[in-house]
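Protocol step 4 of 5: obtain the predicted structure for the target chain.
Materials: sequence only (see below). No template structures provided, no constraints applied. The aim of this step is simply to have a reference model before the mutagenesis design in step 5. Sequence pasted as it appears in the construct record:
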Amino acid sequence: MCQISAVVERDGVQETVMESVTALEVVEDGVILSTFFEEPKKISDVVIDTIDFLGGAVVMKPALKGSGA
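Step 4 output (structure tokens):
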């Protein structure tokens, strides 16, 4: 079984916000990340930029305010 790391990229700098992510739910104002042994974590005001299945990472970027995205 492969888990994935969740990364937020701001101004070209990537910050890992959670490792061993087993589920990712897109919600209206961001995403909710889950793992086996931690409480779910909500990351607000982000959108998914890329998912690298081979590298095991989902990269998120800040949501553009007022864009409806």
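Step 4 remarks: The chain has no helices and seven strands. Residues 27 and 44 are 9 Å apart (CA to CA).
Proceed to step 5.
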